[in-house]
Amino acid sequence: MNFETLFHANFSLLDDAVTDWATLVRNLGELKKDAETDLHQAADKANWAGMNQQVSKEFIGKTAGEFADAHTQASTIHRILVDALGELKGYHRQLTTAVENGRKKSLSVFPSGDAFMVTSSIPPQTAAASEPDRTADVTALRDEIQGILDKATESDNSAGTVLKALADQSKLGFSDARYKDRDSAAKAIADAEAAAKILRKNPHDVTNTELTSLNSMLAKYKTDPLFSEKFATDVGPKRLLGFYAGIADPYQSGYDPARGEQAKQLQKNLGITLGRATLSDSDRMASWKKEMIALGQNQLGIDDASNPTGFGVMSNLMRFGDYEDQFLNDYGDKLLAYDKKVNGEGVNLWVNNVNQADLNYWGYKNDRGRDPMTGFLQALGHNPGAATEFFEQPDGAGSTVDKDSEVNEHLRYLTKERVWVPDITLDGDDGQVAGRTSLGHALKAATTGYPYDATAEAVRTGGERRTAATAAVMEQVAYLYGSADGPKMLHDQPEMAASLGQMAGAYIDDIDYNLSGLGDHARDAGDFPAAYGGTRANFGNQGAINFLSVLGQNETSHGIVTSMQHVYTASLLDAHPPTSATSYDRGVDALSMEAEARGILDHARVQQAAADYGAATEDANKSLGRSADWGKVIAGTVVGVGVAALPVPGSTAAGVAIAPIAADFGGEAVNTFIGHAIDKAVDGAEAKPDEQVQLTSQQFYSKGVDTLGESYENYFSKFQEAGGRADSQQVSQNLKTIYEATGSSEDDFRGRAPYKD
Fold first, then answer.
1. Which pLDDT score is estimated for 212?
2. What phi and psi values does residue 108 have, to the nearest 5 degrees?
3. I want to staple 755 with a disulfide (CB 3.0 to 4.6 A). Which of 461, 491, 720, 726 is the partner?
4. Residue 132 pLDDT
5. What local confidence, expressed as pLDDT, does residue 354 receive?
6. DSSP string spanning 419-482?
7. Whole-Å CA distances, 309 to 288, 292, 327
């Protein structure tokens, strides 16, 4: 900012700009409101079908979001312009005042190129001999004016920097970056530069105090768009990876616990910050992402952490954060392509005695972080959009997935071909494979639309998030684990059981629909309505049976699916009280379908317990006893719009199970079931820890029938006429027959045989 520009400044154009932006903000605010209420909410309530559900509804949601982002960006720009205009007008007044005060002291100010000159306006030849030296006054005025110009320049440059950074965030559409004023945005950029400066140091020279300061800044700005982009691009991919490896390496000389705690927080804070940075569309960030991926298979050329590869470090950082979908998919494509070249039965490239790059501080005992696939899959687990895309169904698949060629290449490799090895410490669980747990997390996110560790409150307020794309992933999962190889796959991959159970439970409405009717015919969509825009996962009748029968073999997945089936059935009973002939029929069909699904699950559980321990043995009976207590896991269920969140075992590490419900909110049947579950949980808490419930297969089936009986009584208890009709039609006996007919009397016909070594 030079003297002449500021002194003769005409702010009319900037005034007009501020006024125009204020008008734009108001108009966009109205458009944002209309887009949300008239477009988005209306679209969510509409009964979409076919391509309209898959394309139009999603497009409308994204469009409404763009209006919201446009309003946010316009508001931020308006506030920055107001700040800049106010400051520049202030500096203009200060400058004109300074010049006028100088004139009163007979000092003149003249422009001189881009600079200025201050002189005395009293000619030397006319000055009295006694006139004091004017040098001090000239210098003082010159310094005052220069100070004003410096501050005006800083204000102008700062506004320009912030506005350009905001514009660079999104080349197409609008950024959701929100700042209350120009100074807060400028400070975010300045603090990013300060944080980046620490990372440009040798990590061994960085003190714990500096690490604490770095973590504080990263934690403060971890979701700030301008900070994250500036920080990431200033540091650069290779230096960033080398810095973290140098800080986190637990085997370096002089390592101490305090530094280890700082390294743990650095892993999380860096991961979240980098994730936010990848959402930027700036040219610098685009280059950053390409360079990071290119570094993947190459070693970093450092002395720390066994000289790790780029994949080895970045995969541990991306365990945390919300990353751009395309970046994660591009990264994953390169990682899997390289992994296929080096993974095999021999010495594992990642997990071996030479590689001591223990770069993961979270769940360290069972996951040292040496296998980069684990961290990458955890990233997908936190980024459902990217996960759904990564495991998308290949083009050309039929209406039902029934052959390997219709399975996503990544999914087939990770579930059937890759050699997984434990990455545990001496104190870890022997045989535990963290990577397969992470694979389950990624698939749960891909099929439900939620991060795998989403909270019950997030699900309650978020509602249904399944789409045709998530259902297409679920079809592939059901095909793989319901195939002839399914029992062995689940037996060899016990870490997958909880996630598979939750995935099946999330689609229990579609599974029930596929089970209904005669084979693949005579289904009634009114019994099990499509819950997400007129579409549903198509497993086929036998495919649904096979998938349930495999999940029933495992104690964990059996309990989860059974619980979610019961919640869904209760919601159907809520939605169809037996007050009319149609509702009565729907209620009876719901009870019948639970009897069939439960029969498949319980039959598989009994047969697998016998295969594992021997029929009627004490261990088999204990296993059945544990499986009979599935209802206890329902205590604490939260019901939202169209979904229920169940805190299943392991929920601390794996979020909640998300079950569909047939009504907007749970009614009496759902709440009664939850209440019974709470009572059972309390009873269980009072039991001695060493007391093991033991049930024979006969007793196990009897408890299953009893549970169906409770549902039957609760449904008809307040409706005597309907109850009498049910009695005359022997509905209760039919339910028992359906349940038991899918038990041991149909061993050869109801799904996959139990796994046997």
1. 96
2. -115, 145
3. 491
4. 65
5. 86
6. ----B--TTSPTT--HHHHHHHHHHHHHHHSS-TT--HHHHHHH-----HHHHHHHHHHHHHHT
7. 17, 11, 18
Distance (Å, whole) CA 440 – CA 446: 10
* b/e map 395-405, b = 16+ CB within 10 Å: eebeebbbeee
Residues 343-351: contacts with CB within 8 Å, 24+ apart? 343/418, 343/419, 344/419, 345/419, 348/419, 348/421, 350/312, 350/423, 351/421, 351/422, 351/423
Amino acid letter, 663: A
Model pLDDT, residue 688 = 43
Residue 251's contacts (CB-CB under 8 Å, 6 or more residues apart) are 356, 358
Burial state string for 106-142 with b = 16 or more CB within 10 A and e = fewer than 16: ebebeeeeeebebebeeeeeeeeeeeeebeebbeebb
pLDDT at 326: 96
pLDDT tens profile 290-348: 999 999 999 999 999 999 999 999 999 999 999 999 999 999 999 999 999 988 767 78
Contacts of 748 (CB under 8 A, 6+ apart): none
Structure tokens at 572: 């159907």
User: What are the angstrom distances between the C-alpha of 62 and each of 43, 67, 695?
Assistant: 11, 9, 53
**Run of H or E residues at 64:** helix 57-104
Write the DSSP symbol of residue 494: G
- φ, ψ for residue 288 (rounded to 5)? -60, -45
Tokens of 500: 């598979």
- Given a contact cutoff of 8 angstroms between Cβ atoms, the answer to whether 623 and 612 are in contact is yes
pLDDT number for residue 728: 93
Cβ–Cβ contacts within 10 Å for residue 21, how many? 18
CB atoms within 10 A of CB 481: 24
* Chain CA centroid to CA 711, Å: 36
Q: What is the pLDDT of residue 237?
A: 97
The CA-CA-CA angle for residues 351, 241, 267, to 5°, reads 80
Nearest alpha carbon to residue 599 among 562, 651, 643, 557: 562
Task: Give the residue from 671, 587, 679 showing the smallest Cα distance to 632.
Answer: 679
* 3-state DSSP assignment of residue 518: strand
What does the alpha-carbon distance between residue 576 and residue 590 come to, in Å, rounded to a whole number?
A: 9
Global pTM value:
0.83
**C-alpha angle with apex 79: 75 to 81, nearest 5 degrees?**
115
Asked whether 238 and 295 are in contact (CB, 8 A), the reply is yes
Which single residue is written with the structure tokens 């988005």? 40
* DSSP characters over 632-694: GGGTT-EE-SSEEEE--TTHHHH--EEEE-SSSS--HHHHHHHHHHHHHHHHHHHS-TT----
